[in-house]
Write a structure and sequence with these properties.
By secondary structure, the protein is α+β, with helices and mostly antiparallel strands. The chain has three helices and four strands. The longest helix is centred in the middle third of the chain and has 30 residues.
Length: 125
């Protein structure tokens, strides 16, 4: 699968595929290095910035809630955990995408995560 992460354009230049900040039916979406500066690349830049900003906002809100009370309702704690988990997932995807493009990240990061949870029961909502 590592071969999938590097692509050669018509001019013979190679570059890393960009992991986009969205999925299609749960599957990763990739953008060709030849598409750098395209509308889709710009959309991905905006979405990544929004995801990082949202993560900061949710973290700040969660901190205020956690510091403001010694006893939080179970539903409030679950809501905080769900939102923090969503934001962490988004921000890790942004970090993975940027790391892959810089050549310092594992191009198959989810493989390691899936191994951590093999054999564990799925959490129920």
């Amino acid at each position: 699968m590592a071969n999938k992460m590097v692509q050669e354009d018509k001019g013979g230049n190679t570059g890393s595929l960009r992991l986009l900040p969205w999925t299609n039916e749960g599957k990763a979406c990739w953008l060709s290095p030849a598409s750098e500066g395209s509308v889709i690349s710009a959309m991905a830049d905006v979405m990544e910035a929004e995801q990082v900003r949202d993560g900061r906002e949710v973290l700040a809100h969660a901190r205020r809630l956690m510091e403001g009370s010694n006893q939080l309702d179970l539903h409030v704690l679950k809501f905080i955990a769900v939102r923090l988990t969503e934001c962490l997932s988004d921000v890790l995807r942004v970090a993975e995408s940027r790391g892959i493009r810089l050549g310092v990240a594992d191009p198959n990061p989810d493989d390691d995560v899936e191994e951590l949870f093999e054999g564990e029961p799925k959490a129920s909502g």
